[in-house]
Specification:
Blueprint: H1 2-22, E1 24-25, E2 28-29, H2 30-38, E3 39-44, E4 51-52, E5 58-71, H3 89-96, H4 104-112, E6 120-122, H5 132-140, E7 146-155, H6 163-166, E8 168-173, E9 179-185, H7 186-190, H8 192-195, E10 200-205, E11 219-221, E12 228-231, H9 235-252, E13 256-263, E14 268-275, H10 293-296, H11 306-315, E15 324-326, E16 329-332, E17 335-338, E18 347-349, H12 350-355, H13 359-369, H14 371-380, H15 404-411, H16 420-431, E19 436-437, E20 442-447, E21 452-456, E22 461-462, H17 468-483, E23 500-507, E24 523-531, E25 538-545, H18 556-573, E26 586-588, H19 597-606, E27 610-614, E28 622-624, E29 630-632, E30 636-640, H20 655-665, E31 669-672, E32 676-680, E33 694-699
Parallel strand pairs: 4-12, 27-30, 31-33
Antiparallel strand pairs: 1-2, 3-10, 4-5, 5-6, 5-7, 8-9, 10-11, 12-20, 13-14, 13-25, 15-18, 16-17, 19-22, 20-21, 23-24, 24-25, 26-29, 28-30, 32-33
Helix pairs in contact: 3-4, 9-18, 11-13, 11-14, 11-17, 14-15
Subcellular location: Membrane
Family: Belongs to the transpeptidase family.
Pfam families: PASTA, PBP_dimer, Transpeptidase
């Protein structure tokens, strides 16, 4: 026995000595095994990139939320006075069902259906994206084993806001049970790779209960947030658009609506929305249609197409506004083209025919121009091919031009199909003095980890089929569509601004069997317009399909209400001088950079303007508005200098003016609301530092929609 136990002792001693010398057991390093047991890795979640408007205002961002788990293993309660695992399945399920979107039976099934030996269970979609308020409420129930982990939730603070453009992202679980936010639609999907960040991690040693050891070092690999997508959208103009569409939807209940606002000088999309719409955060209102219809859908445009036929005729010197033709009908082979009222208006001039939106006038104009020539112009305007906008799945439309009858109907917008973005692009050539601009919606992509611009989009001019002279001539005629007693666009007149544009009433093709849908109101009503007409700053396209019209209402009612509301509010917001002001009462701004702010201030004050120096008296470094902008008396001019900034009285300032002041001053200005300033947290004259927050409260101006007297109403007409 002595020899046996002695042998065992020396054998054990030898084994211990071997392990101590080699540091290994069964070929595995003991230190590594210890590290594996006590080393913990904590994931540091990266933020998904933000989507912001042109001024940096948030459209989509990540916010803190919580993920709910239930600990089932009794091991979690070892060494603890209070139970750390779920002890009462029934009670826990009943309480949780009050707070999460899961009934009691489904929660119980999670508990009882867990794999044998499972440490914890989760609750799928119902247990993710839990708000701080809900998490706090559940914690107060003091349920054993119920724990929360910090998570990320995609937040869309503006609700229904360019929803089909922005799209949405939602949590998705991969094969390894890791949950990541993934873009499912719109920009969130298209730029998912750029928006997705890279998670970091923190390695540290813990005791058996998971508590970090005092002397252990934490090795941190910082997360890299996703890139920021800055759009050309203007949040205020987008809100004007959303509000106008909401009012029209409530009043007319159309099948579809769409509105696009663009800066014709650059091609920047300032707003883009459609109805029906949905809330990106909840997906409430989302239908089976996931198309951004401004880019991905095609339709017959109707009479808005006539402005491009007119432009081609003027460019080819085939337009004689005072020449007469016989309205009513036009024969081509075995086909009869009729005017909208079937009988016409007798012998009228081509100018009156355009104002009345006569289809027959287009037929006679085409005889002079040549139908093949017209198709060539339409191709140069960009119809029948993609414009190349920085959005996915763009449709190209179809130019029907195989037969003379097809070329004729195309001249007034029937048969051939287009996209709204093609119409907008073509119209920039008219609004921008013969320079056709490619529409775009991405301003730049920024890496927030380095603040470097990764990708920058600039205005891109395309070869235009018309000259500056032609563009100005077309605008004069488009203005007469609104101002003439015969014009179909009288309802589209703006308060304080001269506008021009073309109405359209297109038939809607049947989904099967050929032909068009018949019946009152079963049309696609549209308007493509611009203002101020002498030098258009905004171009807006509105479509309303199959509105529910009451007796005395016409298709031009919803389209005009949307157009006038968006344009009047947006032009005022952009500080565009009204056309009603006489030329000698307006002032064109010079380039004041490099000049003395005191001299410039005196000069501008004498001219009736309101100069604001952002900084101390000295040399002007920047100015807003820019050089050559026309301003009326009483308009604000911001002059950036250097040095400390004194707060002005912001009352009555537009949001854009406040944002320019914020940019010039670098102050911590926080905006609350939309429209114009009504209140500020710090009084004027106060001297503030970069660290002092200043809260500015804005309110939207009342919308004034002109109501036309009944005597001015005209029946809606096909092609009008």
């Amino acid at each position: 026995m002595l020899l046996l136990f002695g042998g065992l002792f020396f054998l054990l001693f030898g084994r211990m000595l071997q392990i101590q010398i080699t540091g290994q057991i069964d070929g595995r390093a003991l230190a590594a095994m210890a590290d594996q047991k006590y080393l913990r890795e904590s994931v540091l979640k990266a933020n998904r990139g933000q989507i912001v408007d042109r001024s940096g205002e948030v459209i989509a961002t990540d916010t803190l939320s919580y993920r709910l788990i239930a600990v089932l293993s009794q091991d979690a309660s070892k060494g603890s006075k209070k139970p750390q695992h779920v002890t009462d399945f029934e009670h826990t399920a009943e309480v949780l069902s009050k707070y999460i979107d899961m009934d009691k039976e489904a929660i119980l099934k999670r508990f009882t259906g867990a794999k044998e030996g499972a440490y914890q269970v989760e609750f799928g979609k119902a247990g993710r994206s839990i708000s701080n308020e809900t998490a706090d409420a559940i914690k107060k129930e003091d349920l054993p084993g119920i724990r929360f982990f910090e998570d990320k939730k995609r937040l869309y603070p503006n609700g229904n806001f360019a929803s089909y453009l922005v799209g949405f992202a939602m949590p998705e679980e991969d094969e390894d049970k890791n949950v990541k936010t993934v873009g499912k639609m719109g920009l969130e999907k298209t730029y998912n790779k750029q928006l997705t960040g890279t998670d970091g991690k923190a390695d540290f040693k813990t005791d058996r209960w998971g508590i970090q050891l005092r002397d252990s070092k934490k090795n941190i690999e910082a997360p890299k947030d996703g890139q920021t997508i800055q759009l050309t959208l203007d949040k205020t103009i987008e809100n004007f658009t959303e509000d106008a569409l909401n009012r029209a939807e409530e009043k007319y209940h159309p099948e579809k609506m769409l509105a696009v606002v663009v800066n014709p000088k650059t091609g920047e999309i300032l707003s883009m929305s459609q109805r029906p719409s949905f809330h990106p955060g909840t997906r409430e209102g989302l239908t089976g249609n996931w198309l951004n219809e401004a880019v991905e859908e095609t339709f017959e445009p109707g009479s808005t197409m006539k402005m491009f036929t007119l432009a081609a005729a003027i460019e080819e010197n085939k337009w004689d506004p005072n020449a007469y033709y016989k309205s009513g009908h036009y024969e081509i082979y075995d086909q009869t083209i009729r005017d909208v009222n079937k009988v016409g208006w007798g012998m009228i001039t081509f100018l009156e025919g355009f104002q009345r939106s006569s289809n027959v006038s287009m037929a006679y104009l085409l005889e002079k121009l040549g139908d093949q020539t017209l198709i060539e112009y339409f191709e140069e305007f960009g119809f029948g091919k993609k414009v190349g906008i920085d959005l996915p799945n763009e449709a190209s439309g179809i130019l029907l031009a195989n037969y003379p009858s097809e070329r004729l109907t195309t001249s007034y917008g029937q048969g051939s199909t287009v996209t709204p973005i093609q119409m907008v692009q073509a119209a920039t050539a008219i609004a921008n003095n013969g320079k056709m601009m490619t529409p775009y919606v991405i301003d730049q992509i920024i890496d927030p980890n380095t603040d470097k611009v990764v990708e920058k989009h600039e205005p891109a001019e395309k070869k235009s089929p018309i000259s500056e002279k032609t563009a100005k001539h077309v605008r004069e005629i488009l203005e007469s569509v609104i101002t003439s007693e015969h014009g179909t666009g009288k309802k589209f007149a703006l308060d304080g601004y001269d506008a021009g544009g073309k109405t359209g009433t297109a038939q809607i093709p049947k989904t099967s069997g050929g032909g068009y849908i018949a019946g009152d109101g079963n049309y696609l009503y549209s308007f493509l317009g611009m203002a101020p007409i002498d030098d258009p700053q905004l171009l807006t396209y509105v479509l309303v399909q199959k509105p529910k019209l009451k007796a005395g209402q016409y298709g031009s009612d919803p389209t005009s209400e949307i157009f006038t509301s968006i344009m009047e509010s947006s032009l005022k917001y952009l500080n565009i001088a009204p056309d009603a002001v006489q030329p000698d009462e307006s002032l064109k701004l010079k380039d004041y950079t490099g000049e003395s702010s005191e001299k410039v201030t005196a000069s501008l004050t004498e001219a009736g303007l309101k100069p604001i120096v952002v900084g101390e008296p000295g040399e002007v470094a920047e100015q807003s508005p820019s050089v050559n902008t026309k301003l009326t008396k009483g308009s604000l001019v911001l002059l950036k200098t250097s040095g400390a900034t004194t707060l002005p009285d912001f009352t009555g300032w537009s949001k854009k003016q406040v944002l320019v002041f914020k940019s010039f001053s670098g102050l911590d200005i926080r905006l609350n609301g939309e429209g114009f300033v009504v209140k500020q947290s710090l009084s004027s004259g106060a001297s503030v530092s970069d660290n002092d927050p200043i809260v500015i409260t804005l309110e939207e101006p009342e919308q004034h929609n002109q109501t036309k007297p009944e005597s001015e109403e005209e029946p809606e007409i096909i092609g009008g």
